[in-house]
Each structure stands twice: as structure tokens, then as C-alpha cells.
Amino acid sequence: MKPTKSKSWFSRFAKKTARASGRPSAFGLAVLVILLWAVTGPMFHFSDTWQLVINTSTTIVTFLMVFLIQCTQNRDSEAVQVKLDELIRSIDGAHNALLDLEELEEGELDLIRAKYAKLAEIARKELPVEEA
What we know:
4 helices
């Protein structure tokens, strides 16, 4: 199956922005902006407006980045879940009841987690203990 290009302009934009913002050059640009702002402090006598510029700018960028990164994170999480579901489905002896666990209610998930915790506890007791 060939990967398809996202039809949503927002998904494409979010993916490109998240990828670009994670690069060292983006960090360097952010440091440069802060340095330029700091250097201009004496020119503006470290005024309230001078401080407001950086506060407002960083707040706006942070606010928008939260949504873009969350969009990308949601897509990545969904893709990982589908891949894990396929691995479970394709392995003989695996419990297909574990497919799509992320859609269960918390109480149902807690019951399944408790059963696997019990299995892990039993398996650990059966491990041979080596003395150092």
C-alpha cells in the first residue's frame, strides 16, 4: 500500500510545522529572536511595551503550537495503535480481545490490566533466581 498525501490542508500544515519546529534550526531561530529582543532592551529603556512584545509573541506561538503538535501526536498515536492491533491479530496464540484496547472504558481496561499483572507476577515467580 502506497502512502497517500493527506487531503486536509490542516493535517499537512500541522505535520510540516511540527516537523520543522523540532529541528535544531528552529531552536536556533528562537534563541536568535530572544537575543535580538534582549539587545533591543536598552533602546526601549526596558519598557513595559518592550516586555509585552516578547510575552505576547511567545504566548501566541505557544498557543498555536499546542494545537498543531496535538494534531500530529493524535495521528501518530492512532497509527501506532493500528500497527499494534495488526501485530496482535497476526500472531498465533495472541488474544484478539486486546485489539482496540484504547477504545475501552477505564474500568474495563483496569480489569484487563489486572489480569495481565497477575500473569506477570506468576511468570516472575517461575523465573530461576541467580545469586551474584
